[in-house]
Amino acid sequence: MNDTNGACPSFNDDIQGTSAVAVAGMINALRITRAPIREQRILYVGAGAAGIGIAHLMRMYMSANKVEAETLRRSCLFFDTQGVVHATRQGLSDAKREFAADAQTLAQYGIDDPRGMSLHQVVSHFRPTMLIGTSTQPGIFTEEVIREMARHVDQPVIFAFSNPTSKSECKPEDAIRWTRGRALVATGSPFPLSHSKKSPTSLDREIMSSSSPDWAWGRLYPRHMRLMMPCC
Question: What pLDDT is attached to residue 231?
Fold first, then answer.
């Protein structure tokens, strides 16, 4: 997409469509939790095109909301099949290198050596407010991981976006149970809608109400030939 940008305008649903829906959900989750955007710590589990696309768009949104560059730098962390994505790791792609955590960022979260860290260990140190899964690793959001997240956050935001259902990072009902009904959960695969005693566990309506009309209105303006979205 970067190679043809401008010469051949295109839209990649896996990258840009996913990021639009994901960030819409993240924004609406913040409306529910009332947590300041500059205080968010976002752990992306999966560092492929979808995860990096979400991170790009979320960074754009945070920047547009006057979040300082230093805060942006330490607001997110990536974890993939090889563990923490950090600046000294060999063989990083350009897309991953852009979001690779440097030593200063890791030190702020008490991480001296990220090599070999488990997801549970990363959650314990980083204390994410949002857990975004695009890993296609089924069940990677284990009970241990989610309970550890919930120890540090009143309303954990847990998005298990991998599909099909067999690849989902967790089941919504499990995330709700392990957080005693406090989690805000969205998935990329269909699951039966369940309700906690406090509120529905699905953000589907809120997500769609935020993302779809914007795209629909964009089609009514023929002079706007390009819609700027992150690509990898």
Answer: 47
3-state secondary structure of 129: coil
Name all domains of the chain by residue range, CATH numbers in brackets: 13-218 (3.40.50.720)
128 prior amide bond cis, ω within 30: no
Phi-psi region of 130 (alpha: psi -120 to 50; beta: other; left: phi over 0): beta
Using one digit for the tens of pLDDT, what is the confidence trace for 61-94? 999 999 999 999 999 999 999 999 999 999 999 9
Q: How far is CA 185 from CA 45, 74, 95, 147, 156, in A?
A: 15, 24, 27, 14, 8
User: pLDDT tens, 138-147?
Assistant: 999 999 999 9
Element (DSSP H or E) covering residue 74: helix 69-74
Residue with tokens 């309970």: 147
CA separation (Å) from 118 to 17, 30, 37, 207?
Answer: 30, 27, 27, 31
Quote the pLDDT of residue 221: 45
Buried b (16+ CB within 10 A) or exposed e, 119-141: bebbbbbbbbbbbbbbbbbbebb
Helices then strands (H, E): number in the chain?
Answer: 9, 6
Distances (CA, A) of 80 to 36, 128, 172: 27, 16, 21
Segments of the chain with pLDDT less than 50: 198-224, 231-232
Q: Give the largest CA-CA distance in the chain.
A: 53
Structure token digits, residue 154 = 């009143």
Pairing mode, strands 130-133 and 83-84 = unpaired
